[in-house]
Each structure stands twice: as structure tokens, then as C-alpha cells.
Write a structure and sequence with these properties.
With 234 residues, this protein is α/β, with parallel strands linked by helices. The strands form 3 sheets. The protein has a 5-stranded parallel beta sheet, sandwiched between helices. A 3-stranded antiparallel beta sheet has the order 6-7-8, covered by helices on one side. Strands 9-11-10 form a 3-stranded antiparallel beta sheet. The structure holds calcium ion.
Amino acid sequence: MNIGSTSVLIVEDEQEIADALEYALTTEGYQITRVSTGQDAMAVLRTQTMNFLVLDVGLPDTNGFELLKAIRTNQEPYSNLPCLFLTARSEEIDRIIGLEIGADDYVCKPFSPREVAARIKTILKRFNSFENNTRTNSDAFVHNEAKREISFDNAKINLTKSEYILMTLFLEQPGRVFSRRELIDLVWSEKHPSDDRAIDTHIKSLRAKLSQCDPNIPFIKTHRGHGYSFNLNF
Ligand code: CA
């Protein structure tokens, strides 16, 4: 996907911020659609194809977290639409909630529109490289790239965005030991120096979901002091 064909939906009720973003992103070559409420955002997504979402957390009729959840749940083709949150609140909790429900990154206001453009580029690059290159090595796992779904023996595994990215990495290179740092950098586009435990939490929940696929297979192997690898030899 080149930038010229990338449609970005900006959902932001502060007109000055939306103006600045539209200007910066149009300059970069993105096709911009702007709305200021959650309701209008849903209406656009029902009728137009969007490749990226820039989402304000504080909206007049809803909040960005709820809206993203609704989009991911109800709008089938958008279950993994890449999303960047704009937030006025910088508390850790906002970031964690945002990333947990499937945002790819966030920026805190006030931000530079150029910084936003750079983040979008990074996220799309990562997103498209997963989309184009992934092949699974086992017949048991099937990765539907168009739907961004992974299934095991024909049953869809319900994954969060972070878990989906982890699975994609694991299936691309089964047996490879990924360090925690490596996984953090690959799953999240920002450096989070103290977030080793967050990766452990994601791995734990992913393991729980995989044990529902087959409780007898230790899919994810822990390498003490190093990180994790994925086992497809079963
Ligand atoms: Ca707002």
C-alpha cells in the first residue's frame, strides 16, 4: 500500500487540532476524512473503506476507547484497523487501556502533527509487512490475513491486537527465541523500558487461549533469562 492510496479517518472534535492534522497528513499524501463524533465515525466506516484511524479519546458523544471497541466488534472488516489514539490525559492507565483494546499507539496532546504523521507511517509499515509476508508452518494454524484472524483446527482464536501480533511473529518464525525486549519493540512501536512484565502478561493470556485449542501442547516455550519461542513440532 503506498501512502497516496491510504485513507485516514480523523475523529477529533477540536477543530484546530483536526485542521493541523489534516494539513500535515495531506502534505504527506494521505487521503483524509474528518468527523467530530463517534456516530459520524461509524457512519463513515459503514460506507467507505478506511486504512487508518486517528482517534481522539475525549469525544462529545462517546470516548475513543468505547468507539474503538465498537468498531472492532461490530464492523467486521475493521476488526484490526490500525489506530492511533490522541489523548489529553497521559496517565499510564490510559495507555494500557488503549493498547489492551487494540490501539497501535498513542500521542499525548499537545503534539506535533509531524510527529503524528511519522507514527502513522511506522505503524502502517509494520502492519503491511505482517500482512504481506506471513505464512504459517503448520496445517493446524491458519492465518487469514485479510480478516486478520488466526484459527486452530478451523476454530477462530479470539485474540487481542497485541496477542494477534505476537502470534503472527511466532508463526512466522517457529522455534526462534524472541527476547522480551524484541517482542516489546515488535509489538509496540514505542520504547517502553520497564514493560517486560507487560509482555509476560500478554504471553500468559495468549497461553490460556492456546490451551483452549489443545491443552496438551505447550505451544509457547519459556527460555529463562532470554524470552519465548513458539513450538510447532507436535
Ligand atoms: Ca476532544
